[in-house]
Amino acid sequence: MSDKKIPRVALPDDVRLDTLAVREGLPPSAWGENSEALFLTSSFRQPDAATAAARFANEEEAFIYSRFTNPTVTMFERRLAALEGAEGCIATSSGMSAILLLGMGLLKAGDHVICSVSVFGSTIMLFGREFAKFGIETSFVSQTDVGEWARAVKPNTKLLFAESPTNPLTEVCDIAALAAIARRAGAWLAVDNCFCSPALQRPIALGADLVIHSGTKYLDGQGRVIAGAICGPEQLINEKFVPVMRSAGMCLSPFNAWVVLKGLETLSIRMEAQSARAMKLAAWLEAQPQVERLYYPGLASHPQHELAMRQQGGSGGAVLSFIVRGQQQGGAALARANAFHVIDSTRVCSITANLGDTKTTITHPASTSHGRLTEEQRQAAGITQGMVRVAVGLDDVEDLKADLRRGLESLAR
Q: Which of 86, 254, 270, 339 could anchor a disulfide with 81, C-beta 3.0 to 4.6 Å?
């Protein structure tokens, strides 16, 4: 690549995260717009054939074709990279396509992956079934047992993959410890930072090589579009992921990039407000007699509470899960019926498996987000039929308490 680069917005070197969230990107156009422009175009005119040839050969950095270069997408990539403390970022059409691109860029037949057993259900399916078709082996290990991660390393281990916190149990892994294991193995560590976002946690600062995002969640923040991204070293992104993107085309649309770009402007204040509400709701739920167990990293009762407070800036995040009474007494059938009853009794919460919205959402993970897994896989991940997940939005906490109380207090005795 020559010194002909796409220009950057002029900012002081020491500006902080909240300023980056509203300023980082590209310089404004000749029209001087203050809100970032939306470039809805499939291709870009080139001044002459020789310049076009140079740009297609990566000898000059420029916008060519929106499958892999678009100004609005670049603005989103630069802003998210800045927030994560990464050198670079590549945007994708969804969070799952980001993980697909990760695998296609880094792995080949005969390689070995170590993955937490507690990750999102579709992630388990992607590593355990789809990548396996192409000769990539995955070992699933305990999210929280660092020794189990270390023992799973093989000579052909190329990637360690974790979520922190996990969906839906909110288990927290020791990112720095996993980074040390990855370094010793000569492997990469990728961390899905969907639940925390860079407003609460920056895995690269803790030693991770790559950060995965479903921009559909907190980065957008209002449940409007689907988006994904990988953040990491610029050289790795350019050499491993950009060529795959140019060939395979799991690209983020400019419109979706613009929506998430604007969502990033309010990320910090939304995460602060939603996390504070989640803390209050979690403390209340933990005291309810109809709740057998509550999972929320912000509470001292959480097994990884101290680790979460260190890694997540003292915040528990905005997602909690709880097990409704009935799992121990009546088994899986009663537990499922009771969980459904609590969910169906709500009038404020939105019954949907999405999360990260300003509207509080509620779901039954065993039959939705992790419904494609076998019962054995769900049990290994700790996802029972009595579990309910709540992603707290900006609703009034007292209204959320009343919404959940309606179902909890009317459970069959």
A: 86
